[in-house]
Specification:
Keywords: Membrane, Transmembrane, Transmembrane helix. By secondary structure, this protein is an all-alpha fold. The chain has one domain. It contains 11 helices and no strands. Helix 3 packs antiparallel against helix 8. The relative contact order is 0.18.
Length: about 280
């Protein structure tokens, strides 16, 4: 085993499969500039959790590469698209949650004790970490497709070198994205336009994952093979359209319900102030 060659292989394979991850991290840090729940620490932890899942899948996947192809993972790119749509709906149809949270009393004066606040904070942190890790896994189709054959032809010590190098480089990747967003002019732009840009970044990220993974051509080919009429394109188009319309309708309904709950309270407040 050549130690230097193993490190070089690890660095090159990581760079090839994660150069686009800087875009993902920049998206997260742009959101963190204005989000009260998403922080750089949570982004980093989420990245490591998601990348750990990718490494685990890759290490067991080279023994079951025919059972677990990497292409279908690309369909998870629909989730960032839906996340971007949800943020866009919240931007166009604000529910007033931000103002409602801003008007809460200080700790210990809003009807919650310390234990409830700690539990709420823990759940919020866990949700943010899971969101980052989930999107990291979604964007890991090329990682899995590269790491599976790489691990398959490597020996035990070489795999250990690969994994350790990957984790070190992942930290440097997070640091690079964080330093980009720490630039004052970049930070000012992020704070001013993040709410408007982030939804489209998520939708772009989702489309990029789907296109990069070739999940649709892969599925269409599989469907066409089983039928002489080649219905793959029509089936995938109908299924995707119906799924997206159902999810978007559910989001609009939920936003409408939230606005309906807030409007009566606001009317009562206005009526009481007039009297």
């Amino acid at each position: 085993m050549q130690f230097g060659k193993s490190i070089g292989t690890a660095c090159s394979s990581f760079a090839i499969t994660n150069i686009d991850d800087l875009f993902v991290l920049t998206t997260f840090f742009a959101e963190a500039a204005t989000s009260p729940t998403l922080t750089p620490v949570k982004i980093t932890v989420g990245q490591y959790v998601g990348f750990t899942v990718i490494v685990i899948i890759s290490m067991i996947g080279f023994g079951a590469s025919l059972v677990l192809p990497s292409e279908p993972i690309g369909f998870l790119g629909l989730l960032p698209i839906l996340l971007g749509v949800w943020k866009l709906i919240d931007l166009l149809l604000p529910t007033g949650e931000g103002e409602e949270n801003a008007g809460q009393l200080p700790d210990g004066q809003d009807g919650q004790d310390g234990g409830e606040k700690q539990q709420s904070h823990f759940l919020s942190s866990l949700k943010s970490i899971l969101k980052v890790s989930m999107i990291t896994v979604m964007n890991g189709g090329d990682n899995i497709g590269t790491y599976i054959p790489l691990f398959a032809q490597a020996k035990g010590p070489e795999i250990a070198i690969y994994v350790v190098t990957y984790y070190i480089l992942l930290g440097l990747w997070c640091l690079a994205a964080f330093l980009i967003m720490k630039q004052r002019h970049v930070l000012r732009l992020a704070q001013r336009y993040a709410d408007r840009v982030v939804p489209f970044l998520y939708m772009g990220l989702g489309m990029y994952i789907i296109i990069k993974s070739s999940c649709y051509p892969w599925s269409i080919k599989r469907i066409d093979v089983s039928s002489s009429s080649h219905p793959g394109k029509a089936i995938m188009a109908v299924v995707t359209t119906v799924l997206l319309l159902i999810c978007i309708a559910a989001m609009l309904w939920r936003a409408k319900v939230k606005r309906g709950r807030l409007c009566p309270n606001g009317a009562e407040i206005e009526h009481s102030s007039d009297s």
